[in-house]
Amino acid sequence: MSLEEIKARIAKACAAAGRSPDDVQLIAVSKVQPDERVRDVLDQGHRLFGENRVQEAAGKWPAFRETYPDAQVHLIGPLQTNKVRPALRLFASIHSVDRPKLARAIARIAEEEGHRPEIFVQVNTGDESQKAGVSLDEADDLIALCRELSLNLVGLMCIPPVDEPPSLHFALLKKIAGRNGLKGLSMGMSGDFEEAIAQGATHIRVGSAIFGARDYG
User: Fold this and answer.
1) Which own/partner contact pairs does 208-216 have at CB distance under 8 Å and 24+ positions apart?
2) Contact (CB, 8 A) for 65 and 84
3) Closest to 138 measured CA to CA, from 124, 120, 152, 119
4) How confident is the model over 34-44, as a mean pLDDT?
5) β-bridge partners, 155
6) Stretch 162-188: mean pLDDT
7) Quick one: average pLDDT of 109-128?
């Protein structure tokens, strides 16, 4: 599949949901992708990308930005507190804030760095023990803390369990966002982004459908 085909599917899903395609940002997930594939998508004019790891992004994006200075990268994977400073220097947005310690570290270092990236609180909607994200019971408290810390909080993120209908989790995330007055919804990936758009996604994270299968070897 190609970038243009994904954009066409986004437009079709938005039309079905009575939404404008301009309200949905496509994050091209470039983690573990060869540079030539990423460069090809950049050359097609796309400028919003997602990475899972600070170290990988640090080895890739400074060089790309010399040629494509308007490219933006979002962190969509877990963030360790000892990686916050380099993360703030690399990423325009962090989608994976999931605990008070991390929120406080971002607030402190953002003040020192003079850079306040957009923040999404990641919610573990399936309460899966092996998955990152704040629990459902603690989500409202973490959202409140982010606001107390004056973080640039714009929304919520989730990754549904693989064995459950994703639309149920997208609807749950939308409900949590609504009661907390948040509009940003980072949800939906290559296999389910149409369902996410139907539930109000503002940011969808699509990797393999754009770049092809990842080679982890």
Assistant:
1) 209/1, 209/6, 210/1, 210/2, 210/3, 210/6, 210/28, 210/29, 210/41, 211/28, 211/29, 211/30, 211/33, 211/37, 211/38, 211/41, 212/37, 214/31, 214/32, 214/33, 215/32, 215/34, 216/32
2) no
3) 124
4) 95
5) 120, 184
6) 97
7) 95
